[in-house]
Protein: Elongation factor-1 alpha
Organism: Thiosulfativibrio zosterae
Amino acid sequence: MKETSWINLPSLSLPVKALFTGYIFVVGLGLMMAGAQIMLTHGMADGKLGVSIDDIVYSYYGNRNGSKLESKLLGSMKDKASPEENITMIKWARDGASEAEWKTTIKPIVDAKCAMCHANIPTLPNITKFEEIAKIAEVDHGADVTALTRVSHIHLFGISFIFFFVGLIFSLSVGFKQWHKAVIIFVPFAFLILDIASWWLTKMNPNFAWFVIIGGIGYSLAAAIMLFTSLYQMWIMPLRGQHSDTNAWLEHN
């Protein structure tokens, strides 16, 4: 079956190109912000900036040698209190997180340095309460199943919608064989499934942490190819006089 030569990215009207371009810019910015958010959360799980295998393992499998509180105080929350205060809270957790010491030593630190966010943002554990901080002072078993379920379904629904519209725009591109185009469009969905599935697999076995990185890189690369190709064919290809060459290609394929 031939591709429809009169509906393609180079020949779209100016308003439609503006619509697609605005969407591409916003989605591209959103993907960059998502990358930055990953760097500042999961990327700090081992206390060092940059996503590593240890970061993935600590985020999903956990650090079975310590508590989630300790991981946070050595990682993404390291700068929220002084080094001395962090050490005090880590030592308290390692010594069994007694309620007596909580009242006299730990709660004043939490009220001064942590309550601003943890007592007011519903998505964060309210560690101003002993019952809540005692939970994260236990041995770190990684992501909670309830939280992992919530994040998984949000990502599956939300990101698949993004890839649907990115793929729809790219489907109007020219210069690709149909099966090549179909593979490029399908790849982000496959890597998204791999990414989400690997969260659960890593939760059970840390050796699957590599698949989290592979999944993220895979769908990001495929999305980038579709986004940049679409922009090029809408705005640069017509200016370079390649539209007539494109139609000639379509007539012979």
Q: What stands out?
A: The two ends are 9 Å apart (CA to CA). The chain has two domains: 9-42+143-251, 65-136.
